Amino acid sequence: FAGAAEGRGASSWTVLGKSFMGVFIAEWGDRTQVAMVGQHASQPLVPVFLGSVVAFFLLTLSAVAAAALLNGQKLRERVIMGFSACCFAIFGLLALKDAVFATGD
């Protein structure tokens, strides 16, 4: 861990600190936080905590894996925005489908 970062001039602790602060600030006040508070209020603490930890770990792991795969690639901003827009549209359509076909429990 330390050897790889030292060759580029940044210490392991600096990289760790920047990564932590980036994720912490990005997630602060996110709707995910509100959802977790709601789940903790109505469901058992330990299963919700463990589920949250595993989900955030897998999310972060997938982001790091994607960055490793794309390392050194030239990506146009327009392509990234188009991909994001398509994903957003798909999730929106899925949510709309769920809303339309909800049984009204």
What does this structure look like?
- The chain is mainly alpha-helical and 105 residues long.
- The mean pLDDT is 84.
What does the largest sheet look like?
none
- By secondary-structure content and strand pairing, the structural class works out as mainly alpha
Q: Estimate percent helicity.
A: over 70%
Distance separating the two termini: 51 Å
Number of helices in the DSSP assignment? 5
* Spans where pLDDT lies below 50 across 5 or more residues: none
The string of secondary-structure elements, in order, is HHHHH
Number of strands: 0
| Mean pLDDT score | 84
Q: Strand percentage, roughly?
A: under 5%
- Global shape: flat
Radius of gyration: 19 Å
Brief account:
The protein has 105 residues and is an all-alpha fold. It is built from five helices and no strands. 79% of the residues lie in helices and 0% in strands.
